[in-house]
Amino acid sequence: MPSTLPVGPVLRPNEEQLQEFLTRAVSQVVVREELERCLRTGERQLRVKQGFDPTTKNLHIGHAVGLRKLKKLAQWGHEIVLIVGDWTTQIGDPTDRDITRPTKSRDEVMENARTYLDQFHLIVPREGTRTVLQDEWFGTFGLRDVIDLTARFTVQQMLAREEFRKRQAAGTPIPIKDLLYPLLQAYDSVAIEADVELGGTDQLFNILAGRELQEMLGQRPQWVFIVELLEGLDGEKMSKSKPATGVWIADPPNEMFGKTMSIADALMPHWFEWGTEMPMAEVRATLDALGRKEVHPREAKERLARRIVTEFHSAAAAEDAARAFARQFRERQAPDEIPIKAVSRDGENSIPIVDLLVRAELQPSRGAAKRLVEQRGVRVDEVPADLTTTVPTTGEPVVRYGPRSFARIRWT
């Protein structure tokens, strides 16, 4: 039996709190009627699980959608178990991928995991929460255990997943390890005897597999709580694999504010409702006023940016960030302090803008740099750049890459 936290008083939410919990930013609940009854009556303490794969060092505010649900359950007296996927990360989650995901070394995974722990608890209280590594059970897993686990599912079940169907259609290889991923995540639920598992819509298959495996092994099948996926700056789901399009929990206030101000107007309803803890009455009033054009989109977006910075930092930080944004963008001024990037001339009189972005480490690759330039996202001394732009290797030009990022080039 897994260890458990001391059982404290389980609080019963009022009906308004319960309905908002079950509907705000929620895609589906399996089985809703059962979970709703349990929460309404407070009949027992629930063990609620969510897992995270530390593929990078930071969490983004899309993760906060689920973490806020865990916070609420913790406040109601339920036990929260945060699982750091130190084993599944080394396999690589195939979810929503049409190619296999690169594996991570154990050392890299553990280094990333250390940063996760502090970020978890910026939202989820430490009291009533356990954070565990999968190594607690997979560290002693043997070949017989793996064979027994795989015997409970079929290849057809795994290949029914959309990402695997895409690979089959494209003739892309499907490593056996990718088929193992959902089985290992499912076993997490067995190992801790979860009552509820929470995850995003992209994790529905894995979480349902956990429910099915629990029932096979004689446990009460977990309830499945699926939250919506917040969109990133590119309009697609916010993702650890696309760092340039995410708003990160560890972002400083000015960066968090500026990124929020850059989202498309059409994303504001989701960002207000899913991305903040703003009272729903205020959310609806703001969106209604926006729809009636009583509030300008920029004003609504600034309200959103202030709220997000306040929740992750403070009201004072939000005010400072708003002033900095106004100075930088409304008054067309660069920040007071611009990071300096040293770039070698290599005997050249000028450097193509795409090469400069990569050599200055402002973009991770030529492909990413080219896309940013094509999207009109680069300026040199406030002059828009295109793919034909070259930058003379004299002076100290200021490069703006993206809506909020600046670098001063110092030639060496």
* Major sheet description: 6 strands, mixed
Mean pLDDT: 88
Second rung of CATH, namely the architecture of the largest domain = 3-Layer(aba) Sandwich
Q: Total number of β-strand segments?
A: 13
Q: Which band does the percent of strand residues land in?
A: 5-15%
Shape descriptor reads globular
Q: Over the alpha carbons, how many angstroms does the gyration radius reach?
A: 24 Å
What's the CATH first level of the largest domain? Alpha Beta
CATH topology of the largest domain: Rossmann fold
Quick recap:
The chain has 412 residues and is α/β, with parallel strands linked by helices. It has helices at 15-23, 32-41, 63-75, 88-91, 106-120, 135-138, 143-150, 155-159, 162-170, 176-192, 204-216, 253-261, 268-274, 280-291, 297-312, 315-330, 353-359, 366-374; strands spanning 26-30, 47-52, 79-84, 129-133, 196-200, 223-227, 340-343, 350-352, 378-380, 383-384, 390-392, 398-401, 406-411. The relative contact order is 0.10.
Structure keywords:
412 residues, alpha/beta, Rossmann fold, Structural Genomics Hypothetical 15.5 Kd Protein In mrcA-pckA Intergenic Region, Chain A, five-stranded mixed β-sheet
Kindly describe this structure.
44% of the residues lie in helices and 14% in strands. The chain contains 18 helices and 13 strands. It has a six-stranded mixed β-sheet, sandwiched between helices. Strands 7-13-12-9-10 form a five-stranded mixed β-sheet, covered by helices on one side. A two-stranded antiparallel sheet has the order 8-11. Strand 5 (196-200), helix 11 and strand 6 (223-227) form a beta-alpha-beta unit. Helix 10 packs across helix 11, helix 12 packs antiparallel against helix 15 (297-312) and helix 12 crosses helix 16 (315-330). It is globular. The model has no long low-confidence stretch (mean pLDDT 88).
